[in-house]
Design goal:
Length: about 130
């Protein structure tokens, strides 16, 4: 959640190609849908905290450096999984992000409903967006 900056209209992509952080524009057309999704994610977060499952896996050594950060809202996923899962490293039950195949199935269905007969993958949008930035 903390990687979305609505004020500057920027998304920070962590550990992108070359293990670098990248900033990409956040299109105005996506803001209201993302804000709505963040409200849903916040609801999961609060419910999980109340039931004792409000942690999330942190990158690298941050969990050791900041032992309570795994309960903070900013580290939560914008698109959390609907189900809790067990972290194999810690054995804790927590909520991870939705899996790629969930997004791929939704995209495939949207392409079908739109009547598009060309192959479309999630990476197609990256190229489309980059072309329109030129």
């Amino acid at each position: 959640v903390k990687d979305l900056d609505f004020g500057r209209k920027v998304i920070t992509i962590r550990n992108a190609k070359g293990d670098k952080d990248r900033c990409v524009p956040l299109p105005q057309q996506t803001v209201s849908a993302l804000e709505e999704q963040i409200c849903k994610s916040r609801m999961y977060h609060e419910r999980d905290l109340n039931t004792g499952f409000g942690t999330v896996s942190l990158p690298y050594a941050l969990g050791r450096k900041y032992p309570n950060a795994n309960r903070e809202w900013g580290w939560k996923f914008v698109f959390p999984s609907y189900k809790l899962s067990t972290d194999p490293r810690t054995g804790r039950r927590q909520r991870h992000h939705v899996y790629e195949n969930y997004i791929q199935r939704a995209l495939k269905e949207a392409v079908r409903l739109a009547g598009i007969h060309k192959p479309v993958h999630a990476h197609t949008f990256r190229h489309w967006f980059a072309t329109h930035l030129l």
